[in-house]
Specification:
The chain is mainly alpha-helical and 392 residues long. 80% of the residues lie in helices and 0% in strands. The chain has 14 helices and no strands. The radius of gyration is 22 Å and the shape is globular.
Length: 392
């Protein structure tokens, strides 16, 4: 067999496995798509098209996230970094950029461009699956089966974009999403397709930083607006401060969680495939919420500068609801490793406090202070648990 053409599986226990420069480059391209989605969400809410935003944003974000997820998990198992692998990945990059270009029209119900980009990404991955099947005979039936299923789904996505309109779009979309998510579940049950816990944990952490970057950008916009609109200076500075506190606290909550430990246990069989898929797929909600926070902050700035058609309460809810979802999702995904029920109660209380602050239309700094309090309570509970565990 030609050594260059071999796409053999990588060891799940490989030492010092880290994200490659190519993976970081791909993530950079996903930044464009995520920024487009967040910007479209921002404008939809600011223009009082809230129902459109609530439907369009999750649909668009799924296309972005699923393309990223499938690339990431495949690369964790098969990545020889040869010329063919790089070129196939560059084709996926082209698809990502087309997908990003189609985000604004998808919010209006026209999914043609975004589906074209998505199909380019997925068919490039189909080629990679077939390539891996040639080099990995024990897993070849599963890999070929996944490639075939993905190919059929891409035909269905094209038909969806061309023929499905109006009220039928959402149910058909959800049906296709269920089929997409069933493919890797079937494949992993058919054959144990390798993945590296530390590599996956790092890749998910990197995407978390990317989506949180949208909130940082919104903070910068708030500061710029404060320099131009002096009559709203105080409220804009408060908004910028609140956004910074929120994003830093969200970062702290994510990276303080024992991510690698959860993945190592699921990879070793503790919790089984169900645990691994719950963790990997469940991040959709975390990433969705994190990206939405930045859009919400931008809406708050628009309200304070008189450029939005919604109330301050609606704008504050556009920040608070995603933050509350983020906190609840963090607890749900890491529940098996919680030290005590106290952490669950603290997370629940924080969610209630965040929603209450949003409904009252308080400055978003109040939401940030709730998150800071949650971090402090979590640290105290963990400290007590450690002392009890060591007998001190």
């Amino acid at each position: 067999m030609n050594r260059l053409a071999a796409l053999v599986p990588r060891s799940p226990t490989e030492a010092h496995r880290a994200a490659t420069p190519l993976e970081l480059f791909v993530d950079l391209c996903f930044v464009v798509a995520i920024a487009q989605a967040a910007a479209s969400l921002h404008h939809a809410i600011a223009e009082d098209h809230v129902s459109q935003a609530l439907i369009g944003f999750p649909m668009v974000f799924f296309a972005i996230w699923w393309a990223w997820l499938q690339f990431t998990w495949f690369a964790s198992g098969y990545d020889n970094d040869d010329a063919v692998y790089r070129i196939a990945t560059f084709v996926q990059v082209a698809g990502i950029l087309v997908l990003a270009a189609g985000v604004p029209t998808a919010f209006d119900g026209d999914f043609t461009v975004i589906v074209v980009g998505y199909v380019i990404v997925r068919l490039s991955l189909v080629y990679q699956y077939l390539r891996a099947a040639r080099s990995d005979p024990p897993r070849a039936p599963a890999l070929r089966g996944m490639a075939g299923a993905i190919s059929v789904l891409q035909v269905l996505w094209v038909l969806f974009a061309v023929f499905v309109v109006g009220s039928m779009q959402l149910p058909v979309f959800l049906a296709l999403v269920a089929c997409e998510m069933a493919v890797p579940v079937w494949g992993q049950r058919k054959a144990s397709i390798p993945w590296h816990p530390h590599h996956i944990a790092e890749r998910y952490g990197l995407l978390t930083i990317i989506v949180l970057g949208e909130s940082i950008l919104a903070s910068v916009i708030a500061v710029q607006s404060a320099a131009d609109v002096t009559e709203s200076l105080g409220s804009l500075v408060l908004t910028a401060s609140g956004a910074l506190v929120i994003v830093c606290a969200m970062w702290w909550l994510y990276f303080n969680a024992p991510t690698v430990g959860v993945l190592e246990r699921t990879e070793a069989g503790e919790g089984g495939l169900r645990g691994a898929f719950m963790w990997g797929f469940g991040h959709y909600v975390i990433f969705l919420a994190a990206a939405a926070v930045g859009a919400g902050v931008a809406v708050v700035v628009d309200v304070q500068t008189g450029q939005a058609e919604v109330s301050l309460q609606t704008a504050t809810l556009a920040v608070g609801i995603p933050v509350a979802i983020y906190v609840a999702s963090m607890w749900a995904l890491h529940r098996p490793t919680l030290i005590s029920r106290g952490l669950a109660w603290a997370s629940g209380a924080a969610v209630v406090a965040i929603v209450a602050a949003s409904l009252l239309g308080l400055p978003i700094l109040a939401i940030g202070l709730v998150l800071v309090s949650l971090i402090a309570v979590n640290a105290a509970i963990r400290s007590v648990a450690v002392r009890v565990g060591t007998g001190r």
